[in-house]
Write a structure and sequence with these properties.
heterodimer, A: 116 residues, mainly beta, seven-stranded mixed beta sheet, 11 strands, globular, B: 112 residues, four-stranded antiparallel beta sheet, 0% helix
Chain lengths: 116, 112
């Protein structure tokens, strides 16, 4: 069983569209994250949720809106997609509610988003 | 926010010991050092974490000198499957985004 799963694995769409990426973890963890890995391979945190509450919100355009219906799910909705949004998006989870670097993070397989 | 510097790439051969060094001159007193491994088309995977001296697990060892301004990830007897990108992260425990930017990492290539 996959610990952290994401759907879809690939997403190709036109500029201006709205799309969502789903993430689920079956590890019973309290904290979930979204990361973006750009073409230069930098992997940067976007958001972090602890028990459905937002605890980290980095400088991300407000076109990106995370939604956590329960602590096992953290979905990412992106409005008005732009070319620069093309990247691989990773979901992750960790046990500790405090989050941060000392919490071992378990990553999903990634979603490759291509905006045309 | 401690910044890290790693070599962009390294090459080695199967069976060798590989040491990847990360510089973090501005490390703070409450910062920890964590290493992750990422294979192509996969998310990163935790390898090891430490605060000072030496930490060893079944996969790797982490050496941290007394001044903590650098750290070395040591992979014993590497195999082809160790070809991956290795990220060094430095940041405080207890929350926040500090230290959660992975940077470019070190691309390790193992040859037969």
């Amino acid at each position: 069983d996959t610990a952290v799963s994401q759907t879809p694995k690939y997403l190709v769409t036109q500029m201006g569209n709205d799309k969502s990426i789903k993430c689920e973890q079956n590890l019973g963890h309290d904290t979930m994250y979204w990361y973006k890995q750009d073409s230069k391979k930098f992997l940067k945190i976007m958001f972090s949720y602890n028990n459905k509450e937002l605890i980290i919100n980095e400088t991300v355009p407000n076109r990106f809106s995370p939604k956590s219906p329960d602590k096992a799910h953290l979905n990412l909705h992106i409005n008005s997609l732009e070319l620069g949004d093309s990247a691989v998006y990773f979901c992750a989870s960790s046990q500790d509610g405090a989050g941060g670097i000392t919490d071992t993070q378990y990553f999903g397989p990634g979603t490759r988003l291509t905006v045309l | 926010l401690a910044k890290t510097t790693q070599p962009i790439s390294m090459d080695s051969y199967e069976g060798q010991e590989v040491n990847i060094t990360c510089s973090h001159n501005n490390i703070a007193t409450n910062d920890y050092i964590t290493w992750y491994q990422q294979f192509p088309s996969q998310g990163p995977r935790f390898i090891i974490q430490g605060y000072k001296t030496k930490v060893t697990n079944e996969v790797a060892s982490l050496f941290i000198p007394a001044d903590r301004k650098s750290s070395t990830l040591s992979l014993p007897r590497v195999s082809l499957s160790d070809t991956a990108v290795y990220y060094c992260l430095v940041g405080p425990s207890g929350g926040g985004a500090d230290g959660l930017t992975f940077g470019k990492g070190t691309h390790l290539i193992i040859q037969p």
